[in-house]
Amino acid sequence: MLTPGQAADCPRFTAVLDKIRVAGPVGRPRTRPAAVAADKAYSSKANRAHLRRRGIGAVIPEKSDQQLNRRKKGSAGGRPVAFDPVRYRQRNTVERCFQKVKAWRGLATRYDKAPESYEAGLYLRGSIMWLRLLTSTT
User: Are the C-beta atoms of residues 58 and 36 closer than 8 Å to each other?
Assistant: First the structure.
């Protein structure tokens, strides 16, 4: 889902999640992954409630201000959010992929004004990364 460069990603969380298709070895792609790992920017009640409604595990660290507000309320603040640090470390793979995409200056700074041109650059960069991966393993 392509958004303006200056727009925040968090409001688009549910829309992006609705478009995800996880391919398995057989059958149709799954629309409900086992868990979603995201950074602190996605830590909100709305996002966590959406994941809970769909039965998806949230691997999202809690923001420090949310922790303080919860602790300030005492027992009325509720329990801390569940967080799996082992699963969260796997997010590193995604972040490294973003850095490889942004190695192209035009994609990192978003010189293209038309969304179609920018999206074409993303597809081209992804194809080159995939081809390099195929040729480096043989």
Answer: yes
Among 1-10, 52-61, 117-126, the minimum mean pLDDT is found in 1-10
In this prediction, residue 75 carries a pLDDT of 81
Please give the single-letter amino acid code of residue 39: D
Q: Is the dihedral of CA 4, 7, 8, 12 positive or negative?
A: negative
The alpha carbon of residue 102 and the mean position of all alpha carbons in its chain are separated, in whole angstroms, by 16
Q: Which of 94, 1, 2, 80 is nearest to 39 (CA)?
A: 94
Please choose, from the candidates 12, 4, 15, the residue with its C-alpha nearest in 3D space to the C-alpha of residue 114: 4
State the average pLDDT over residues 45-68.
88
The neighbour count for residue 58, using CB atoms within 10 Å, is: 21
d(CA 138, CA 20): 31
Note the pTM of the prediction, 2 decimals: 0.74
